[in-house]
């Protein structure tokens, strides 16, 4: 079973993955800063996603759009009018909640669960989630802009640019990773729901009629991606949205849900969305095209382009259908952390945390450790090995700030797959007793010169590997 979020929050703070943001000023509700290890982990999650969807396929292009966009994008996408959650106030505790969710929060006034005082609620009212800001120095209506609440729209408005500049034919997709902002009514549960977060989105364009097959393809692909990078099958499931839950333009949507709340008694409440994979039909490219679109009851008077696609072979014209796998980089990072968490008794009998992250996601791949820090030959050799690994693209660190057993424990706790130890046998000098002369040292066993010990995080097994073959040995086991 995975750890619950509380355990992960404290591990993250203790070991430099994620800190409460603006902490020394008392924080700012539900904002988080990724620390030295968190930034590496999240970058690795994003890299693994990009590799799977852009590099390992031939039918996806990448892009990176601006966060601030012309307000008209949000007018025609429908966000200005409808990107809202139903907000209710509790007349008793004065709390504000989403009417479409159930809460297990403590009521600040009555110090009990919100459900207990939720009988006295106002009627729900629509609360738009977009953060408004102003572009330019003068406060005037024309300068209103929003921080994007999703990355998808810059993909849609660049559809034609990418088709034209990259000679793309349908079917193909566009992928983007970037920040999105939503003024959530009730953020919380660590990085699960925040007001600033990162999305990893694909908009996959296909011919109407092929959309159901592509939808099934992407559900399969995305599900397998999480399993490949270490999520345990029993903690991931598919939830097919019911017709009444779908956005008005969507034909279907399947959510990949992760068991984010294993501590909840009601098994149904343990699950929440990790990624949504929607069939958005031809809504997006239609509404951003100039002209009247009766199907969507939209008349676009501002767009300068038509995003209609002309099949180069048949000359047939149509608005492509869109399959959208939309994932959260922060939620994925949290799920990988929760799933990797394990404890087992250490050599001293004390419980030891071992973060069994997939090597491709681990913030640090290899820690190179000298057996003793007061022996300059050991230190120099270890530093040289660290530098060589790093030069060849393997994220490695050097550490000599504690005894070897403690250094191993620290690396287990942060998920480092391998520790490399440089000892006396590596140098062929044998270990001298304190005060003894070096020439009195016992000879090093034959065959160990220029070899190091490699320790595996998960099995704690140690093998002796020649330094000359170390890079290949590690690269074979680190995977991508
Ligand atoms: P919810 O119903 O939980 O509010 P949503 O259905 O509105 O989520 P989408 O619009 O489908 O979410 O966003 C796609 C993905 O972006 C989500 O699956 C999630 O991983 C991520 N995401 C959305 N909102 C947030 C948030 N406030 N904080 C962190 N990640 C988020």
Provide an overview of this structure.
The mean pLDDT is about 90. Helix 2 (about 35-55) packs across helix 10. It is elongated, with a radius of gyration of 27 Å. It is about 30% helix and about 25% strand. It has helices at about 5-15, 35-55, 70-75, 80, 115, 150-155, 160-165, 210-230, 285, 330-340, 375-390, 405-415, 425, 465-480, and strands at about 20, 30-35, 60-65, 70, 85-90, 95-100, 125-130, 130-135, 145, 170-180, 195-205, 235-240, 250-260, 270-280, 290-295, 300, 310, 315-320, 320-330, 340-345, 350-355, 365-370, 395-400, 420, 450-455, 460-465. The strands form eight sheets. A seven-stranded mixed β-sheet has the order 3-10-11-19-14-13-12. A five-stranded mixed β-sheet has the order 23-22-24-25-26, sandwiched between helices. Strand 5 (about 85-90) and strand 6 (about 95-100) form a beta hairpin. It has three domains: about 5-80 and about 130-335, BirA Bifunctional Protein, domain 2; about 85-130, no CATH class; about 365-480, Anticodon-binding domain (Rossmann fold), CATH 3.40.50. The protein contains 14 helices and 26 strands. It is an alpha+beta fold and about 475 residues long. The structure holds adenosine-5'-triphosphate (ATP). Adenosine-5'-triphosphate (ATP) binds near residues 197, 274, 276, 327 and 330.
